[in-house]
Amino acid sequence: AGLFVWRLRNTGVLQIPCRFVQLYHVANNRLITFQYFNFLKRMYVTQCNKDLSQRAKPKSDSIVSPLHELQQLDQEKKAVHRISPVSPVHHLGSETSSRNELREMKLAAETEDSVIPVGAESKEDRQWKEMKLQLDDLPGILARLSKIKLTALVVSTTSAGFAMAPVPFELTCFLLASLGTGLASCAANSINQFFEVPFDSNMNRTKNRPLVRGQISPLLAVCFAASCGIPGIALLTLGVNPLTGALGAFNIFLYTCCYTPLKRMSIANTWVGAVVGAIPPVMGWTAATGSLDAGALLLGGILYSWQFPHFNALSWGLREDYSRGGYCMMSVTHPGLCRRVALRHCLALIGLSTVAPVLNITTWTFPVISLPINLYISYLGFRFYRDADRSSSRKLFFCSLWHLPMLLLVMFTCKKSVLEKEDKGNLPGGSHETAMEIRLP
Amino acid sequence: PPAHSRSDWIGPPDKLSNLRPIIFYVPPEESALERRLREARQEAQASNQRFWARHNRAFRQEKEEFIYSRLKAKGLEMRDESGQKATLNAEEMADFYKDFLSKNLKKHLQYNRDWYKHNFRITFLMGQVALVRALRWLRWRKKNVKQ
Questions:
Q1: Residue B18 falls within a domain, yes or no?
Q2: Testing the interface with B: which of A82, A84, A201 to mutate, by most B Cβ within 10 A?
Q3: Can you name the residues that pair with B9 across neighbouring β-strands?
Q4: Would you say residue A202 has pLDDT above 50?
């Protein structure tokens, strides 16, 4: 507040306090709702937003990764006019708090279904910047270039695949697989951003990316991608096994050369993106076992199906940006199909969960325990299918955010231990304990 | 950007195209290769700017027309009693978005091809320039060490 007053004195703009008070008042009124959304959003941020247009990372999932810069999530919802006098508002407190405020305002705008003028950019953003590489900023820039949060999510799905494999846990293999996957994911994300600079500039969610802002040159982005991707794939091929390396390389190719261009050509990109997201857990499994078992495919299938409710729900709110940016997404061109597919795959998740014990990956407790959450997401999918409005799409999207980690967690706790399989009947109630033993490295 | 600066400067996003303009620094001892790079970047920037400015303007215009026609069909005015601009909800706008996207698809396909060509060319030239500079620096270092 003090800072703000100082700025007022300096700028001498009199209309700012009124506008600020107005915005603050609006923000306060919606504080409670926003707290909830902000919590989810923050959670989302740590889980990496999936960029609708960006299909978060090929590795993890084009659809999956909500790993996108979460703070942009609501910005795309409404066209917000910028007013320059409001920019001092954003100097209050830290950048994140101003972003939260901005998010709140944007949510307010959405809820009121009207466009309120909001200073969308800080003053710093409107200045001319020297295009010289700042070395101290470099880690942050590279983190954003590689969509580090999304990468983290991808690596966690890989770890889930590794953990579910019916073999004794090997720490070195696990670490190598995770590191290799992470590097490959960074590479793929960087190339994706390299390809999409003018489109990212035009979409609210992505306009603050490093290449868009000129913080890094395209050459450096490509070099960074190569220096992540080549060691990453080499690590997977030589340090883990060739199958995992091949899958990693294939996934990078699928994401950068198939998904990214396809986004602007046909709605088939969503399905390609779902495959991109499904491959990391398969990689985790093959890293552990060295072969493509039915279990790997099942895990991949679960992630493949999950992508659809997640992405389709998210893309529902981005239709304007997609339309203007020229992205061919189901939510824009085939809205009915969009909702049908989302619902279909929610139901498929139930089916896939039931198949897991049949393939001896989990015990029969898994389909039983996972049924409530699968039914819930299917219910939200059905609501989305029927209502086709913003609130149902948001509910489905936010549900998908916690549904996947929870499903994977339940799957892991219901994992059929290797020991139990070997001496059947010797450990009647010990499946959980033995599973625990194997889990601990 | 200050006159004495020896690097490129990038500015805030353009109002129409949302792209950030770059002012390129022309060094006095610019080589032919560096000049080709700079010209390629300038050409790409101009072409991008043209495309997006025109495209976004068309979008805004068509959106206004759509809203106007829909409101008229409903018997409403562009501005309601309080003077606020009337808007349609997302579901009604969906028809417009679908229409706009399909109308512009071909334009986008062409632009994609052009953009990818520009991007690859610029990056490749950047690579060449960087390589030449690195070699030059190594030669200079070797000369200094010899002395």
A1: yes
A2: A201
A3: A130, B23
A4: yes
